[in-house]
User: Fold Sugar phosphate isomerase/epimerase from Herbaspirillum frisingense.
Amino acid sequence: MQTFRVYQSLWAMERRRPDGQEWTLEQKLEMIRDAGFDGAGVRFFDYQYARTVTQFLREHGMTWQAQCYPRTVDELKPIIEHVQELGADHINLQADVRPYTVAQCIPYLEGWRRLADDAGIALHIETHRDRMTTDLFFTLHLLDRFPDLRLTADLSHYVVGREFAWPIDAHNHALMRRILDNAWGFHGRVASREQIQVQLDFPQHRKWVELFMDWWDYGFRSWMARAGEDDVLSFLCELGPPEYAMTGADGYELSDRWVEARQLMQMARDLWARCAEAQAGASAAQVRKHA
Assistant:
């Protein structure tokens, strides 16, 4: 049976308030556990940090994704060693390189994928600004070269990066669906064409929330059709601190991101349940048709 896991980003637990008040790591992990998340996104380039966090998560029956930001092929090797020791359902890789051409990307992607394949570890390449995948069109060219490239779809970066006009036209929807059809994980954040992260409950943002929910709906259904029966899909709630989060003149955020993270968790789970129900209904109808 396919499994859906909703994680909380530990980076998103940073507050960066003008008064300097921050939660301790232990407080953050307890909050994630008590809120009902399935696990967390964990930075794996810091071994001691990853060891501490994954020990807590494991003790409480939770899971995690391993996040890394390599600048060379070899920089993935210690991450793989950490995953082999500490575990993770997959490696989420932000390619911290900015090649000018697709040809210049090939040695990186082939090298990273070879290392992960040899280790038997799932590897997802995240769509993200100021990384190899910074631009939607460039990433689509990468998919032309690597049709089976597994992506972590953070759609917010492409909405801002391309400044999609409203309403989104059929052509841009089709481009985003190409990303979604290669998505093997999701990072959850809602953007507008000018802002990387908008508040979920502000009425002026409702159209953007509905747009992302529609895209995630398509992406979940696409994944269900592609993935194996025992595969796992993860959705990382990643509502970032300032300057991702909007702030007022006093430097404080305009909304409570922790409240929004729990809201987003429930939105994602409800959407998954609807998609799974629809898939089950379609399968049953197909069986009846051939009975």
Observations:
- The mean pLDDT is 96.
